[in-house]
């Protein structure tokens, strides 16, 4: 059973960079068809997909966040990281790292997020 754990500072000042690390146990981040993803949820809002790094190390980001987002990985540590630059209070949220698995049903392609970290609260405030 895969286990994911987020870590990083819970308070970030406006204009600084939010940095989080996800440590994975029970799976390998280079495993086929895995999309290691960051998702966040703000108070009163739904879940927002931030982006992923896939099993080859290719990244993909939400268009609304792409200019500020970097996701990377350290395969030796089985970790992947999120950097969100130039943060504002609107970036305050609970941040989750997740494992996405590719699924095809009726010739439609999906990613199912079948494993989640517990989430970590990040507050952007001066």
Describe the structure.
- The protein has 126 residues and is mostly beta strands.
- Helix content is 0%, strand content 58%.
- The protein has no helices and eleven strands.
- The protein has strands spanning 3-7, 11-12, 18-25, 34-41, 47-54, 59-61, 69-74, 79-84, 93-105, 108-116, 120-124.
- Strands 2, 4, 5, 6, 9, 10 and 11 form a seven-stranded mixed sheet that branches.
- The radius of gyration is 14 Å and the shape is globular.
- It starts with a strand and ends with a strand.
- The relative contact order is 0.30.
Task: Set down the secondary structure blueprint.
Elements: E1 3-7, E2 11-12, E3 18-25, E4 34-41, E5 47-54, E6 59-61, E7 69-74, E8 79-84, E9 93-105, E10 108-116, E11 120-124
Parallel strand pairs: 2-11
Antiparallel strand pairs: 1-3, 3-8, 4-5, 4-9, 5-6, 7-8, 9-10, 9-11
- Describe the sheet with the most strands: 7 strands, mixed
What gross morphology would you assign?
globular
CA-based gyration radius: 14 Å
Low-confidence stretches: none
Number of helices: 0
Distance between the termini: 39 Å
Strands, total number: 11
SSE-based structural type: mainly beta
Beta content: over 45%
Mean pLDDT: 96
* Share of residues in helices: under 10%
N-to-C SSE series? Answer: EEEEEEEEEEE
């Amino acid at each position: 059973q895969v286990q994911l754990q987020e870590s990083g500072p819970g308070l970030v000042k406006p204009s600084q960079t939010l940095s989080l690390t996800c440590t994975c146990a029970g799976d390998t981040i280079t495993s086929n068809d895995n999309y290691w993803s960051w998702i966040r949820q703000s108070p009163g809002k739904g879940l927002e997909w931030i982006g992923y790094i896939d099993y080859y190390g290719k990244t993909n980001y939400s268009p609304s966040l792409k200019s500020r987002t970097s996701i990377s990985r350290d395969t030796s540590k089985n970790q992947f990281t999120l950097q969100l630059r130039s943060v504002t209070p609107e970036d305050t949220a609970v941040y989750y790292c997740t494992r996405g698995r590719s699924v095809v049903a009726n010739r439609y392609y999906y990613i199912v997020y079948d494993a989640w970290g517990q989430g970590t609260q990040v507050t952007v405030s001066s």
